[in-house]
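Minimal example, chain plus manganese (II) ion.
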Amino acid sequence: MHFVLKPLPYAFDALEPYIDAKTMEIHHGKHHAGYVNNLNAALAKEPAYASWNLEKLLTNLDKLPESIRTAVRNNGGGHFNHELFWTLLKVNKGKGPDGKLKADLVATFGSVEAFKDEFATAAKTRFGSGWAFLIVTNDKKLKVLSTPNQDTPLHEGRPILALDVWEHAYYLKYQNRRPEYVDAFFNVVNWDEVARLYEKALK
Ligand code: MN
């Protein structure tokens, strides 16, 4: 099999009480695993693309045979987004962004709070299933956006913060209260990892 589900880099209960252990177990072990399995199954039908890495597949969807294009878009996007998402989560005990990332968030959005408001609004107002992202655009600007389904923001730039707003990400604990889940998310942003991705994206 080409793509592999990596273990979560922490225990299922590491994000309690903001994201519960049962949600993390099912989200990683069933939902993310499903995307990986379905992506591998699609690529098995078209072995010519088996050597392409994930980003090459996702940024060249128009070059793929129609028979697997939608499956790669949905399941490859799902694999990419979730792999990123897991690394961005850590109980931060109120620690926010600092250094260059903080300075550039303030320069771009007016304040860290204004950035959080814009990001939270993108997450709360995405209709149906999708994601909110903070990206570094191809011309090296910070930008908030949301995508539907499992679409990635790779056509616009590099994601450095991501929030899954599919119901499977929050329904067990928050039911229909997506705004509460979005607000709780800021307690589990691993800002050190966001800063590392920011530095990397600027190079
Ligand atoms: Mn998900």
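Residues 92 and 101 are 16 Å apart (CA to CA). The pocket of manganese (II) ion is lined by residues 27, 31, 82, 164, 166, 168-169 (CB under 6 Å).
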